[in-house]
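Protocol step 4 of 5: obtain the predicted structure for the target chain.
Materials: sequence only (see below). No template structures provided, no constraints applied. The aim of this step is simply to have a reference model before the mutagenesis design in step 5. Sequence pasted as it appears in the construct record:
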Amino acid sequence: MSRFLSTTKAAGLAILFLLVLMQVTSANFAIAQRSRGYSREFPAQQQQTGGTLHVALGIEPDTFNVYTSTLAIEDVFINAFYDTLFVEGLDYAMHPKLATNWTVSPNGTVWTVSIVHNATFSDGTPVTAEDVKYSYDLAQMSEINHMDVVDNYTIRFFFNAPYVQDYVMRSIFANYYGKILPEHIWSKVGDPYSYKNADPIGSGPWILVTWVAGQYLTIRANPNYWGGRPKLDSVIFTFIPNLDTQVMSLEGGSADMIYVDPSYVATLIGVANINVTITPQLYNNYIAFNLNRYPFNVKEFRHALAYALDPNDLVHNVLFGFGIPGQQGWVAPGDPIFYNANITRYPYDLNQSNQILDNLGWKRGADGIRSTTNGTRLEFDFLTASDTPTFIRTGEFIRDQFAKIGVKLNVVTMTFKTIISQEFEGQYSLAMLGWFSISVEPSVDMRWQFLPGGVFNVYGYNSSEFNELFAEYKVAANFTDYRDKIFQMQQVLSDDLPILTYAFTPSISAYRIDKFQGWIVPAISDDTLQGVLNWYSLHNLHLITAPENMTQSTTQQPPAANNLDWWIAGIVIAAVLIISVVVASKRKKPS
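Step 4 output (structure tokens):
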């Protein structure tokens, strides 16, 4: 069965893409118009309720503890079980969730936040300001000096500096680690930072019912959710590692939704009653270097590896054109606001790469493999994800590229879970990794990836210049300064190369349209809006009440290997709104 798009089908998809993009863009701007300022945003209520959605997943979560979670799929569940004070909306601006009213002191360091009065945890216990304080005490955010509980539904945050208001809302009040946990449960678990939380009690719209390890997981709608009950009765997530089996389960109707590997897109296009959506997402695919190991602590060596990798060839021939060739500095090049186009670039140049290694005095042996001046042979195990054929092909492609400059990689395949475990233990030299951005604002992720002590700084990266820029960015006086500091941080990362990005890839989802309707397709996918399997979809999906004639599937937003327009159009919606939030926050305090 061919898994490549034909020229004719690709042309047809290009036309369809333009039409769909216009619809998605119009819809998102309409949302933005309805959501001016800060307002609580929940999907429109539907009349029809009931039904069980079936989702096939290739990977199973390990935990529902926000402090030990490392897998993007775990975020889908954690976001469903727990609330935050604020949340990223479909317009990518920040909106209150548990918060209702808030004021900021004249010097910008004291925030007083009130929360809803009718929120309860799934065991019936009311959510109070004490739970908020307890949760933020656990989160140990360095920006917070201390907190005072004013009354049952009001808490006062004392910050160490007058941080930019968008930063406070996005990086602190909507922070992944800012989930509001029930103090009466977590205070009794011993060590909260190692607690598996296999039976989560939260105030979110969904409740865990059953978790059979290795088989399936079932959640049901929280009938007492303060924000309104989801329309579905339940969702069953079945764990199916085999991609062929996932696709067959979708085609046969036993699954209603799957994530799609690029190599399977052509298989699903044209199948009756199935839609395929290709959503630009802030997913950074990269090679992680262990900077605590020689010779990866030699910056010039990392530069040589960057020049030896051809990301255009990788995207075109390995990723089937689904992605943007990697640029360094962390921020995706399609971002029209925060991407610094003037950062150091590493075009594919084997001569430059070999020259760097020659200048270091690292000579080739009889077998063509180089050794350093102290005799260290440039042969390393390359931890490569085995979860899909695309990951394995990517690892082999990188191996073949580096062989051309006398660096031998032994591709060692293992699951993403195992790779992450090895990295946290420091048991690696270089490894394939990916990061599903928490927010459309790039510095939110930079703090976890590149600051000393950052939860996911498994590289051992520590740059005094980067650290100082990040501290200055948080207290920027205006948007220009705010953005310029992000530009400068990108330049530092591009020079230092603690990681080597090879591609930014989209989220590809496929779902059936003959049983449920109300899928929410975001303009951009990030941690909160992971393709169509996002909090808004799960809240909005409902049974089809009047059967209609179903047609063959459509594909939304197919990529072109060397064309960034599709990505830019999606990101610009978010970027414009981020600017308006930052600028407005400087003119007027929310109340």
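Step 4 remarks: The two ends are 59 Å apart (CA to CA). The CA atoms of residues 336 and 572 lie 6 Å apart.
Proceed to step 5.
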